[in-house]
């Protein structure tokens, strides 16, 4: 800029200050044969005196024009180089920022993959365990609920990582395809892990219901047995009818309880089947998870040979336990049904006997109080036509009643 300014001053023929050319920047003109003398403020000169005031300035020399053009060219080259360097610097800075973001993303994904792999192995240690009693099943359910809640807290971090991945991809990150692949596998690994959590939650709920209903059934067996074996059978017809009604209600309650236990048993076995299938799908997902970890850290063997449970053996044990419980319930139910049917027969036989006795008593009472009395009292034939017709009509009515009693007695004999 100083050189161009002094060149412009020379072009107009004006002096930058007075004095000789050797005065370090005080004059513009310098001797051509001594360009280095007198300081850096002078560029070109032809003498030590300035031109007269009434004389027109000389035209700029070719050397001065060449110098100015050269300076302008160099200045333009410097400016272009500066812009190019700024572009390179910004590009390098952007790439470094993206690389830093990528490393942070991979580090977060690595932590999540480690958490999923570790907790999957812990999860599989008792994945198909359902408990052998109501209390144990309830305890397992509570422990699993705490574990599931902790896992849901981890999902918040996974969801944040997936959101970061979306922003990086949308922002045109240079490793967008790699980020998309890792994020997709992390999302799939979590979804498969969450599916296992959901299935175990459902199965433990079914186990709690099954054991609760089974234990309730077993607890009611003594009372049902006593009610089915009741020794004192009433003799009154009304009381017998009430007893039969109560006995039928008892059977309906036993059947309802057994049906609930059996339905919960079937639901639990179906849930165990589904959970075992989900468990068999988990290793494939974890292999992909380990592959992701290998892609990130270059160490795909990091998660090999981890300890884990044996879901098939746990399933076999759980299914065998459930079958043993339902067989126990079935044996109780069959024994109760036998006792119930035996008492039912007794009640109905006693009621039939009492009804038979009442019917016989009614017939005998009619014979004693009406039949024989009527025959003994009505021995006349009437002294006139009117009286004879009265006797005839009364006798016909008596015959109708006697015939009805005869049919009734025949029915009694057929029932016996």
In short:
78% of the residues lie in helices and 0% in strands. It is an all-alpha fold. The protein has three domains: 2-48 and 59-89, no CATH class; 90-299 and 315-357, Up-down Bundle (Methane Monooxygenase Hydroxylase, Chain G, domain 1), CATH 1.20.58; 358-374 and 382-415.
Q: Please, could you describe this protein's structure?
A:
This protein is mainly alpha-helical and 416 residues long. The protein has three domains: 78 residues, no CATH class; 253 residues, Methane Monooxygenase Hydroxylase, Chain G, domain 1 (Up-down Bundle), CATH 1.20.58; 51 residues. Helices cover 78% and strands 0% of the residues. The protein is rod-shaped, with a radius of gyration of 56 Å. The protein starts with a helix and ends with a helix. About 12% of the residues have low confidence. Keywords: Guanine-nucleotide releasing factor. One of its GO terms (molecular function) is guanyl-nucleotide exchange factor activity. InterPro entries: RhoGEF_Guanine_NuclExch_SF (IPR051336), Spectrin/alpha-actinin (IPR018159), Spectrin_repeat (IPR002017). One of its GO terms (biological process) is axon guidance.
């Amino acid at each position: 800029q100083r050189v161009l300014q002094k060149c412009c001053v020379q072009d107009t023929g004006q002096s930058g200050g007075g004095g000789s050319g050797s005065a370090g920047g005080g004059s513009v003109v310098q001797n051509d044969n001594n360009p280095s003398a007198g300081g850096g403020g002078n560029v070109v000169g032809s003498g030590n005196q300035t031109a007269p005031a009434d004389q027109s300035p000389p035209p700029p020399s070719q050397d001065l024009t060449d110098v100015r053009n050269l300076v302008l060219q160099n200045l333009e080259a410097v400016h272009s180089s500066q812009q190019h360097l700024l572009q390179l610097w910004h590009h390098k800075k952007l790439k470094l920022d993206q690389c830093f973001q990528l490393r942070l993303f991979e580090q977060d994904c690595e932590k999540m993959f480690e958490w999923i792999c570790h907790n999957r192995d812990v999860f599989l240690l008792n994945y198909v365990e359902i408990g052998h009693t109501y209390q144990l099943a309830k305890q397992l359910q509570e422990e699993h609920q705490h574990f599931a809640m902790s896992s849901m807290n981890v999902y918040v971090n996974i969801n944040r990582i997936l959101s970061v991945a979306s922003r990086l991809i949308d922002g045109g990150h240079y490793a967008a395809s790699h980020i998309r692949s890792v994020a997709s596998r992390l999302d799939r690994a979590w979804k498969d892990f969450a599916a296992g959590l959901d299935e175990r939650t459902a199965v433990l709920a079914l186990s709690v219901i099954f054991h609760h209903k089974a234990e309730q059934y077993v607890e009611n067996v003594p009372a049902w047995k006593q009610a089915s074996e009741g020794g004192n059978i009433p003799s009154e017809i009304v009381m017998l009818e009430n007893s039969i009604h109560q006995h039928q209600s008892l059977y309906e309650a036993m059947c309802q309880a057994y049906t609930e236990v059996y339905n919960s048993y079937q639901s639990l076995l179906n849930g165990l089947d589904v959970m075992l299938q989900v468990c068999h799908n988990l290793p494939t997902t974890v292999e992909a998870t380990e592959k992701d970890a290998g892609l990130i850290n270059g160490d795909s063997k990091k998660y090999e040979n981890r300890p884990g449970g044996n879901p098939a053996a746990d399933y076999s044990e759980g299914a065998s336990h459930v079958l043993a419980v339902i067989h126990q319930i079935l044996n109780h139910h069959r024994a109760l049904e036998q006792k119930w049917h035996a008492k039912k027969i007794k009640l109905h036989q006693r009621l039939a006997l009492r009804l038979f006795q009442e019917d016989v008593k009614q017939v005998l009472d009619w014979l004693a109080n009406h039949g024989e009395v009527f025959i003994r009292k009505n021995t006349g034939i009437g002294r006139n036509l009117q009286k004879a017709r009265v006797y005839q009509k009364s006798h016909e009515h008596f015959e109708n009643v006697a015939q009805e009693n005869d049919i009734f007695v025949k029915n009694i004999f057929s029932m016996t």
